[in-house]
């Protein structure tokens, strides 16, 4: 199979685009998809400071690499969740990337360690406060990414969510008719109230397979192992179903998610509506001042509970 | 050929020659959820694999 563009030997075929690419043309394709996402969704400009949430996985490290290659001012934030050998390995991957690649672009890496603040790693913490691990993890990561973005005065926070992540999440929301979540499924969420950073997903036009290929081709050393806490998760089940459909009918995932985005855009001016809705229900947490719908935010409640059950 | 798989990590022996897409079908693996790496190089679905090749089939799906 030859490259659709330059006719040399291809290294990856992309059935959904009816194309195949060599390494050089594939990198061009990936960079072009991210540049289109940034421009079409008004994510950020070359002068703005971006905080990339990095986990050591293929998506977030690929995102950091792509943004730096495209000339953006992007620093990283790694949250050490304290999941034994998995966290040790992912931390090492992130640190190595930061030293070997990001530093040469003048970018830095921030670090937050869950155990230092909570007194326990994520698995133990979730057990002690009687909450599901993935939900505890999500609350902590969302809080810490937003905190660092605000405190360090970044203009925008970027995550490595890809087309598969968004299509699977959309499928989950539709299957359970969680219509209230659909407004927040766009790839660019505004800083709707003081204390909330703008959040963007520049990889929403690229599939997981394409991002893994980008990481392999560009020798980005990422953690291949799945998070041990994610085994059997609903998201993985939705992704499996979507990938079976995609293999039989290429383009299914992009038609599903991009089609949803088009419908949302036609329906209403999302940014304004979301900002209005957020301003109506959010106010500063009595403990930390981050926006919340309750008197005390879920993160502060979780930390207060941790203090009562974890000996220091 | 030696084929390295993940989740869980294991190695299986598969008789060549065989195209990448046929190898994936034989192992009941979905194309969209995997990359096939021969030595250090990514290969496309129509690539022919032979006895003696070192193959890694890498899953690409993460929890999200």
Index terms:
heterodimer; A: 312 residues; alpha/beta; Rossmann fold; six-stranded mixed beta sheet; 12 helices; 10 strands; B: Ubiquitin-like (UB roll); two-stranded antiparallel ribbon; 39% strand
What report would you give on this structure?
- The complex is a heterodimer of chains A (312) and B (64).
- Chain A has 312 residues and is of the alpha/beta class.
- Chain A has a single domain (21-267), classed as Rossmann fold (3-Layer(aba) Sandwich), CATH 3.40.50.
- Chain A has helices at 23-40, 58-69, 84-100, 114-118, 122-128, 133-151, 163-175, 208-217, 234-248, 252-267, 270-281, 298-309; strands at residues 12-14, 19-21, 49-53, 73-80, 109-113, 156-158, 188-189, 198-200, 283-284, 291-292.
- The radius of gyration of chain A is 20 Å and the shape is globular.
- By secondary structure, chain B is mainly β.
- Chain B has one domain: Beta-grasp domain (Ubiquitin-like (UB roll), Roll), CATH 3.10.20.30.
- Chain B is 11% helix and 39% strand.
- Chain B has a five-stranded mixed sheet, with no helix packed on it. A two-stranded antiparallel ribbon of chain B has the order 3-6.
- In chain B, strand 1 and strand 2 (10-13) form a beta hairpin.
- The mean pLDDT of chain B is 94.
- The A-B interface holds A 1, 10-13, 20, 57-59, 134, 161, 164-165, 168-169, 207-209, 211-213, 216-217, 224-227, 229-230, 233, 235-236, 239-240, 243-244, 246-247 and B 6-7, 30-35, 37, 41-47, 58-64.
Tell me the layout of helices and strands.
The complex is a heterodimer of chains A (312) and B (64).
Chain A: E1 12-14, E2 19-21, H1 23-40, E3 49-53, H2 58-69, E4 73-80, H3 84-100, E5 109-113, H4 114-118, H5 122-128, H6 133-151, E6 156-158, H7 163-175, E7 188-189, E8 198-200, H8 208-217, H9 234-248, H10 252-267, H11 270-281, E9 283-284, E10 291-292, H12 298-309
Parallel strand pairs in A: 3-4, 3-6, 4-5, 6-8
Antiparallel strand pairs in A: 1-2, 7-8, 9-10
Helix pairs in contact in A: 1-8, 2-8, 7-9, 7-10
Chain B: E1 2-5, E2 10-13, E3 18-19, H1 20-26, E4 34-38, E5 41-42, E6 48-49, E7 54-59
Parallel strand pairs in B: 1-7
Antiparallel strand pairs in B: 1-2, 3-6, 4-5, 4-7
